[in-house]
Amino acid sequence: MKYVDVVIDNNSDHTDELYTYGCPFDHVRVGDKVYVPFARGNKRREAYVFTVKDRLDEPVRGLKEVLEIDPEIRLTEEAVDTCRWMKRRYLCKYIDGIKCFTPAGSSSKRGKKRDPLAEREYVPDQPKALNEEQAAAMDHIRKRLAEGNHCIVLMQGVTGSGKTEVYLQAIQAVVEQGRQAIMMVPEISLTPQTIQRFVSRFGKEKTAVLHSKLSLGQRYDEWMRIRSGQASIVIGARSAVFAPLTDPGIIILDEEHETSYKSDKTPKYDALEVAARRMGYHGGLVLLGSATPSVVNAYRSRSGLFDLIRLEKRYNETPLPQVSVVDMREELKQGNHTMFSRSLIRAMEEQLDRGRQVILFLNRRGYSSFVTCRSCGHTVTCPDCGITMTYHKSDNACVCHFCGKKQPLPRSCPACGSSYIRQFGTGTEQVEEAVKEFFPEVSVARLDLDTVRTKGSIDKILKEFQKGKTRILVGTQLVAKGLDFANVGLVGIISADVTLNIPDFRSAERTFQLVTQAAGWAGRGDEMGQVIIQTYSPDNYAVIAAAHQNYEEFYRQEVALRKQLGYPPFCDLYQLIVAGEKEDLVQRTSQELKDTLRARLGENASILGPGPAPMYLVNGVYRMQILMKAPNGTRQEFSAVVTEARKKLFTDKKQECLLHTDINPFSFV
């Protein structure tokens, strides 16, 4: 008889612990999925083995036994170790971590293979010659791989510097060692291009794909291919970091600065931290790539925690684009009331006449950003979430971009009855309409979350632009992430102020990154490109640094400001949300939580709130927020105190409120 400690597949804080069972199967191993009788009714439940023992330290009264071991699903010991770590790191439940490592879907009853690459054709590709900077980068990576010790390398390379070829050859080096690799991109929209390059280099048989847009059956089959060792290279978005590889040697995060690498759902993990944990276990390398590294990771690289590699020249030696900043305040003074500056219109005409393409970037979808009454000032908000609704002209409706609720555009003000209710602000839908008015003979397409809802729509939009059928592409940040088109002569940033005015300490960083990334897609062919940045804040340091493509100057000013204000990388931020359907109870409980934290952490601890969360009412649930700053070196102490408070206030007693914890969130909405 063996004895096992298991985690029950039950989404409750009350059962978030290890349960001991006897096991009549001698072949049971850590990571096995098993079936056990649970609770008073002995209901058959799924569970996962975390420890296996030959004997018990002390007798267990009424010991129950494992009923069955699942023959298909099993986690590695490293996955179990990472789940334990995730519980401590992100204050989540054991089962939250386990769900990240286990496959969605189930095996095909007909035995049919569900291959996401089956209908694609790929032309074999050979490694390209490296320039001097790329060769130096590969020498450093090969040296680190040969050492067999865990390390993190940040490769900071300007757009078009050839980072992807370095990724490909780094993975080839790992495969030659007999090990495996994970290649991650920040957006699912980028996976088609990435898959094309990697499958062309390594072949379909060795390559697997993992992301949320696959069918459940495809995800299950790909998971099994990886787990069985048939595929040694995994490509995907954030969740690919949990690919069930048995001996990964490298995990690559392209565009590492993107916020999409941080989960906004439980467990609220950071893909970089998970990658580092997994590579620490296996003695592998984490490779981060970006033209605009996050301030936190840039600080780590400059402090010696990460290795730093620089690629400062474009692969084809084409100069970086010519960038100019247009002060939209002056445009207004001179009578231009359109969303396009005169210099942008002239530049578009010139590039189109030369047969080149144009990208227009605005990080706000919809037609108008809000609808308001000019008589009383009432703004249309979501009845469920309480946030401002965006007007979509294609639907003639107001849409909540948080919960998706849609309602007709009111003909009169709901508050005062006035007919003076209008749409204000600009979104990509309105930009597209205006472009078609200025250039009626030119083909225009829009790339944002509203145009890519159907399967294959992203591929279709990008292919038509790549083939030159679309001359002008209007889009949100989707167009600023990893797209590579040689014929783009001009990138126009419609408004750099959209991200600059977000109430978040990272607003300057996000502005610099988005503008720099979007600008980098101009002139990637043989000709120099042009970038025009429109803004009402031309003197802002982030805009100036982006215009000069000067990361170091931006970093210098930003990190000094962060240090002065005590923001990351100089602390960990904790966002605690108390949520419930009874408003007075939520407010009382959040204050009780604040008092408990204060009593344990002391008067000097930085604890802000409680106050209404930015989205106070969501689908009938009230939300109060507490923010804490944990100075470097105190994260374990703060996490222990939060865990203790959660147990005291939310687990041990019947509570009608829930506590949601997010450490270092990338959005405070």
Question: In short, what is this structure?
Answer:
It contains 18 helices and 27 strands. By secondary structure, it is of the alpha/beta class.
Q: Can you tell me about this structure?
A:
The strands form 6 sheets. Strands 8-9-7-10-11-6-12 form a 7-stranded parallel sheet, with helices on both faces. Helix 1 (77-90) packs across helix 2. The chain has 4 domains: 2-101, GIY-YIG endonuclease (3-Layer(aba) Sandwich); 132-311, Rossmann fold (3-Layer(aba) Sandwich); 322-365 and 427-562, Rossmann fold; 571-663, Alpha-Beta Plaits. It contains 18 helices and 27 strands. The relative contact order is 0.09. With 669 residues, it is an alpha/beta fold. The longest helix is centred in the last third of the chain and has 19 residues, at 583-601.
